[in-house]
Amino acid sequence: MDKRRESGAASLFAVIFSAMLLTILAAGFVKLMLKDQQQAINNDLSQSAYDAALAGVEDAKRVIRACQKGNASACDALEKKDCNSVRQSAVLGGAANAQETLVQTNSSNGRKFDQAYTCLKVSMDTEDFLYVGAENKVQLVPLRARGAFDKVVIEWFNKEDNANKNVALADVHNGDVGLPEKAAWNTQAPAVLRAQVITPGNNFTIDSLDSSSASQAVFLRPNGIVSGLPAVENVVHKGSLRRATDTPTTRNEPAGVLCSKDFAHPHGHSCRAVIELDEVSPEASANAFLAINHLYKGANVRVSVMKGTEQVMLYGAQPAVDSTGRANNLFRRVEARLRLGEDIWYPAGSVEVLNNLCKDFSLAGNIVEGGACDS
């Protein structure tokens, strides 16, 4: 056999296999490029759809604001809670029966990126008021409700507030209701809350807030922790609420709260307390508020109201918006809670007098003694 022919055949096979290998590698690179390109397109569309959904949230704010200013059609549209109820308000202009709303720009009128929000639902009724509280900052929670209520429920401290996501810290100075120095409070223990309930009724004066039960406060102090749910509900009875008086015997001792080691309360919180009140009517609830101050640390907080054992819906305290955005054929859905108006600055303490001011107490170490100032 001719060795030169054998050598030529081997070279031919080598060239063929090399070409096949290069083709496979090239096809793999092309596939990776196309996959990355598609992923980049999907990411852009996803972000565009998310932006369109946020545009729907902003339009919802406009309709809610119009209702607050007395626009009857806006208020009627919000009560319907339909996908196109915001369009039906006539606040935004355009066709009231449009199935979607294009997100407009100055040049393309929304068609360049094919962005729109398709379904926008607004609910003025919510079961709760949610917020993330900061240490030593007062959060004012409106308690305007659809029906009468006689209980305020406060839940706080979830897994997001704890470095150990699985369990709440057991060291909360079990059985003690005193307020230690900040350095003595474990950084992973639940926060102490000072809850001030303000329920002045339909008609009131500023003086009545200081001369009646319209403004009362309680310190909610975690002082025990159990697995699962506490056997007994943490209830602050009406007689336990305190307010300042002109007698030297007034005391506002913190109320001990048993917390759950494994965040077993229904909404994932460790601590839960129920504050009992005289019944607040729906009309009087328009002037009802809860001021919460966080001591030692901040926390995620959930506030709700009840009548007996029944849940009462809050109205307009923190409207819920469900917005679905679209970009081309990709959809994103956003659920948001809105705060109406600007945050209200609420002082942690203030003094206003017409005549003399007399306040007498002593502080030494961990002991506080009331004085006998009476003039």
UniProtKB/TrEMBL annotation:
Keywords tagged on the record: Membrane, Transmembrane, Transmembrane helix
UniProt keyword Membrane present: yes
Membrane-crossing residue ranges in chain numbering: 12-34
Record's protein name: Uncharacterized protein
Originating species: Candidatus Nanosynbacter featherlites
